[in-house]
Amino acid sequence: MKRFVSGAVALIATGWMASAQAADIPYGSRTPYTVNQPLNFYSWAGPYLGANLGYAWGSVDHNPTRPSGFVGGAQVGYNWQTGPWVFGIEGDIQATGADDTFAPWKFSNPWFGTVRGRAGYAFSNILLFGTGGLAFGELRGETFGLSESHTSAGWTAGVGAEFGFAPNWSAKVEYLYVDLANSNFTITGVSNGYRFGLVRAGVNYHF
Predict the structure, then answer these.
(1) pLDDT of residue 167
(2) What is the C-alpha separation between 78 and 113, in angstroms, rounded?
C-alpha cells in the first residue's frame, strides 16, 4: 500500500511539473503578448482589418435639412512603426441612415468612404493618433416624388485612440469631420453638399 501511495504521489508531482513547464512555452501569439515580453514592446506594425459603428450628424449647403443617423462599416489598413511613432494608411466604406426632411425637401447620405493617412504616438498598447485624407460619398435629394443623387469627393480629418486589449485585437474610438463637395441639383436649382461630424467605435484584427 505504501508503495502504491508513494508511486501515486510521484506521478502527480511529475505531472504537475510537466504542466508548469508547458505553461512557459509560447503558443504563437503576437510578440507583445508572449510571456517573457512586457507590454512596452507592443508592436502596431502590420496589416489589420476591422468593423465599426457610430453616429453622424451634419447639414446640407443651401438647404435647411440636417441629415443625421447611425453609421456602420468596415475598415482596412497598414501601420509602420518607428519607436513610439506610428504611421499608417487606412480606408473604410460606410453605410448610413443619415437623412432629414424639411417641408418638401428630403436629403440623405446612403453611403460614404474615406482613404486617410494616420500618424500617432504609442504608449505601449495605447495609440493616440490624428488622421486625414480623401472622402467620397453619395448625397440624395427628394422632393414632390422626384429624386436626384450625386456622388462627390471631398476631404476628412479627425483624431482618435486605439487600445490593444488581447492578442491580435484592438479597439478604437475616433471623431471625423467629413466635407463632401457641392454638386448642382436640378430639383433644388442650387448646389448642395453634405458636411457632417462622425463619432464611431470599432474593433480591428491585426495579422
Answers:
(1) 85
(2) 17
| Percentage above 70 pLDDT, the chain | 81
Numbers of helices and strands, H then E, in the chain: 1, 8
pTM, two decimals, is 0.80
- Who contacts 139 (Cβ-Cβ below 8 Å, separation ≥6)? 60, 107, 108, 109, 149, 150, 151, 152, 180, 183, 192, 193, 194
Tell me how far apart the alpha carbons of residues 99 and 94 are, in angstroms, rounded to a whole number: 15
Best CA proximity match to 45, nearest among 122, 110, 151: 122
Residue type, 105: W
Could you identify the residue written with the cell 480623401?
A: 134
Segment 32-40 long-range contacts (CB within 8 Å, at least 24 positions apart)? 32/125, 32/164, 33/166, 33/167, 39/124, 39/125, 40/124
Residue-wise pLDDT tens digits, 9-55: 343 344 434 333 433 434 334 544 333 444 457 899 999 999 999 99
